[in-house]
């Protein structure tokens, strides 16, 4: 509590709360509160509010001698981490990256451009679903069910496939029946994706907003009451993508039979083909029409078209499976299934959509103009000198083309994984021979997939070059920063090892601002290699090895080596990805390493791809908003909302959701904060300078602490003459041993902000700037959500 009256005093009782929100990598309540004895006062095992045991019923004891707010920790780490099975989400990374592209739009007031951008991103996301399902069809139906089961030499030794071998003459030996059986794999995958999306929405994203907060015209989008509640959109997109996946499997199953059928059987097949075309057009139309309704929580029931697609897609697939199982005398499997045109068409469609998205984003960026507003000074404090991280404040990355670049990366990642996995499984089935060559039993995957697998070694060479360039730049910057040590720590005797340690931390932290250049380079290389793969598939045969046959010198051997190496690298990469994911959910240090991209990617709602990993903010933001709104209403108290790293982003999002009266009773303390450095540049329509300036105006107080050694956080520059930042804080606090610091001080970087001497001072200053309660609540019964002593509140310490 901030003030406590003496007995009999008429002074109002003003409770105060410090609501702590941790960042990426998670934290324990004991560590956040600095006490091994904690009790959960609200929430569940997934996300909850914790207090020290001695503070569990602090509102009942206003006379206690306190000189600081009551600390309360909100832990949300179990929303993004858990058991090792969640590592499987990493295999859906292209979906998550495509969903990010939706939120990277440049800010613009033109509704037509916004709608066009939305539609293009949703269509790109749909092509990724088609690519995944088509790749699984290629592996299970073409390579296994059609080619391998139809070749006696390939089936030899594979007891799990012997019952369907063509030369054994069993019921499953007919090509159509083998394909129908193999279609169970992509069909089951489609059903699994639907189930995961449906289940995780109820587990993560079904929390209603706290208030009907309606900002004025032109207000921040994150303040809209329906921003964190998009039930109907996810349901509509889920139905469309599920239907598209089922129809892809049905097409892969129907086309080989149509090439064989005549008469009534052929007429039935063409009728099924027409039904597939109608439903496919409906799925594309539903994807284009589906849009977010953020002005209010979208509780409407599913659209009739969505329900039709959800039932119609699997029903047509079942009918096609029955049709494929019909007896066709004399039908034998030879060559490969006609899938080359499918993958080539998907690649060309993705390229056209990304080009259109880039044009749209460029127009939006041009329309936005200068994103940096100038607002009157609201503080008499001098502005702290701060280096510009990655350009001017509010400057969007890649001149507004961040969204198209990320969408291109999603497609490139999907294409490389598709080609590499297909080639790896073909090599495994072909017993080490090169599929389609060396007299092997298999023809191998379509030519485009083989070419895509072959470019993986080239991508690795480019990445090695990029890493070498970054290391050289890091070395130069470390030397330059090392020359600043005399000014940062005057009067200290120089120690080369200590100087290298501090300068290295500062220069490594600056590498974060080079991510945009890295993305641009990788996108350019990916586009050129992807275009080369399409041209090679059209003109160069089944793969680089075949295209190089007859060439002079070692070129044929190099081409075959690239083809084989690419398939092995993807196989190893998938295993490594799963191993990394399992380790990240068990090891805190590994979780912090990959947590930046993962927590940024899953922070945003699933607006473009319904099969992306679930959005934890649709649970965390309502949790924080409900807590602040109900606590201030029942106690009349004041709140310091203290957010670290990603917790500062959640804190800002929660403050935007508060009504104005509650927001005036909340002060924001952020540290290690990426609001401007990362979110403001990559998501300018939602965290750009106008939005951060509006947030600062609507809050009673906001303070941000930052260090130069922090690779994630940075300053929050909200306008000329306006002070939010305190920093850069000296890190480490002492260069060498001193009487006050007799032991070497560590370089803290992104952690340890509450240990800073200025932390408590800034927290106290924020509390003093909050307005006094207009109608303070007297001590009384325990507010709802707080356990009384001896209640069922469970201790976690």
Automatic annotation (TrEMBL):
Segment forming the signal sequence: none
SUPFAM superfamilies listed in its UniProt record: alpha/beta-Hydrolases (SSF53474)
Annotated region (Disordered), positions in chain: 770-797
Compositionally biased intervals (Pro residues): 776-786
Keywords: Membrane, Transmembrane, Transmembrane helix
TM segment ranges: 116-136, 179-196, 240-258, 264-284, 305-323, 343-364, 405-426, 451-475, 518-541, 561-581
Annotated protein name in UniProt: Integral membrane protein
Source organism of the structure: Streptomyces fildesensis
